[in-house]
UniProtKB/TrEMBL annotation:
UniProt-listed SUPFAM superfamilies: Actin-like ATPase domain (SSF53067)
Signal sequence, renumbered to the chain: none
UniProt protein name: Unannotated protein
GO molecular function terms attached to this record: N-acylmannosamine kinase activity; UDP-N-acetylglucosamine 2-epimerase activity
InterPro entries in the record: ATPase_NBD, ROK, ROK_cs
């Protein structure tokens, strides 16, 4: 038995066929097209990978439970595209479309670093910050399917301008692109490399970044009380050296820190495959 999932990213669409444990059997990648050609590409990718009767798709942005992409800030022309209904009608199979970060969280929960957890927060630190929340053994999707937009949690009232049009969102301070802002123009990789080489400016940027990451994780823990927090995304490759600083700041930012068990902080296990694997497994598990 195998399952197909396609993760639509800002630059590429990543399709996988996996077995029931999430092991990748086949994978393909195509450049992300203009939104008007997205459904055609997804249909073709499904046929290329097929052998199954269902398809999971992850798309960045606000996705309705029916699979309509309401808005996708990083994809040109993506406004009210009926990805789910259109694919169901063309392919005649069960198709589920979900926010990409939610799907990546689902992948880490089912087949990665949060496997087996009843309560988990999965955080993706990339260009922005995405995530997913598992409580009581259920992935939380909210009343409209829009739950888990943790990057737009405001951590600084009237703070830095965010791409969402509001100010002070967590992703302005703790994402990969926030490192550029905190460092005054260096990329995340450059900042981490310079900090490792002993550059004191870079080290202070990394310390500040770790504080901002920790502040958000502590708020999420105060709200969700997870047993594990998984941190993934592009920043993570250089992240292991920062995890200790994050853990220390996290401890002091947590409510009633001395009187409670702390969640385990883990780096993600599936890397850039988390989204596509999550998409594939989503329908396999009903
Ligand atoms: Zn925002």
């Amino acid at each position: 038995m195998s399952f197909v999932g396609i993760d639509v990213g800002g630059t590429k669409c990543h399709g996988v066929r996996v077995d029931e444990h999430g092991l990748v059997l086949e994978e393909i990648r195509y450049p992300t097209p203009h939104a008007s050609e997205l459904v055609d590409l997804l249909e073709a990718m499904f046929h290329e990978l097929s052998g199954t009767q269902s398809l999971g798709v992850g798309v960045p942005g606000l996705i309705t439970p029916d699979g309509i992409v309401r808005a996708s800030p990083n994809m040109k022309g993506a406004h009210n595209i009926a990805v789910g209904p259109e694919l169901r009608s063309r392919l005649g199979i069960n198709v589920h479309v979900e926010n990409d970060a939610t799907m990546a969280a689902f992948g880490e929960w089912q087949a990665g670093a949060a496997r087996g957890a009843m309560n988990a927060v999965i955080v993706t630190l990339g260009t922005g910050i995405g995530g997913g929340i598992v409580m009581g053994g259920q992935l939380q999707r909210g009343a409209n399917g829009f739950a888990g937009e943790i990057g737009h949690m405001v951590v600084q009232h009237d703070g830095e301008q965010c791409v969402c049009g509001r100010r002070g969102c967590w992703e302005r301070y703790a994402s990969g692109s926030a490192l550029r802002f905190l460092s005054g123009g260096m990329s995340g990789e450059e900042v981490f490399a310079a900090a490792d080489a002993g550059d004191s400016h870079a080290q202070s940027v990394v310390a500040k970044f770790a504080d901002w990451v920790a502040v958000g994780l502590a708020s999420l823990t105060n709200i969700c009380d997870p047993e594990v927090i998984v941190i993934g995304g592009g920043v993570v490759q250089s992240f292991s050296s920062v995890l200790d600083s994050v853990a220390k700041s996290f401890s002091s930012a947590l409510y009633s820190s001395d009187s409670r068990p702390h969640p385990a902080l883990r780096t993600a296990a599936l890397g850039e495959r988390a989204g596509a694997i999550g998409c594939a497994l989503f329908l396999s598990l009903g």
